[in-house]
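A reminder before we start the practical. When you read a complex entry, don't treat the lines as separate problems. The point of joint prediction is that each chain is placed relative to the others, so the output describes one connected object in space. Small molecules and nucleic acid strands, if listed, are placed in the same frame. In the example below there are two entries. Take a minute to note the order of the lines before looking further.
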Amino acid sequence: NAGVMQNPRHLVRRRGQEARLRCSPMKGHSHVYWYRQLPEEGLKFMVYLQKENIIDESGMPKERFSAEFPKEGPSILRIQQVVRGDSAAYFCASSLRAMNTEAFFGQGTRLTVV
Amino acid sequence: QQQVKQSPQSLIVQKGGISIINCAYENTAFDYFPWYQQFPGKGPALLIAIRPDVSEKKEGRFTISFNKSAKQFSLHIMDSQPGDSATYFCAASFASNTGKLIFGQGTTLQVKP
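Here is the predicted structure of the whole assembly.
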């Protein structure tokens, strides 16, 4: 049973471009969380999604960031018009049930904005 | 009120020694306290977790001590090994809510041979 799969592992974007980060949860998991880790810092919650629904987006920046988890396919974290401050590691975690806090993390996507 | 404060920021321990990492929280509504281990270039992996109705939980060489009245919890790694060298994060969540995790700032542990 494959774990949480994130791709790409590394992504380089120029300022102003769009970044799309993908997350395929563990098989059978329908709850996805996105976290951002800035260099030398802990992980910060961004958004919690269930299939086709955004449940909690309290950690998402108000502009340029969006997330979705469609009925079919991976969850996508989209960053429009990237800036240097968006450079970070973005981690996705999935869990089996609502309010099940045993969340399993992917290996992350390291975004570098040049 | 949703912060989790972790200390120390870095820790160096000799092989065979005890590594102790501390965390403190303010929000008494937190009801789930996990510890994660992260190796460079990898995602965090759940190490051990505790709920506030228990004062201590032990799994192998890893022990969580939980002090509800002081709103503090700590990770003890007994007989520390070089392979334990990693970054450790404490976290807290409202398990009965969305389950989102509030992480501490992390502790980089180096175990010297």
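Discuss with your neighbour: Residues 3 and 34 of chain A are 15 Å apart (CA to CA). What might explain this?
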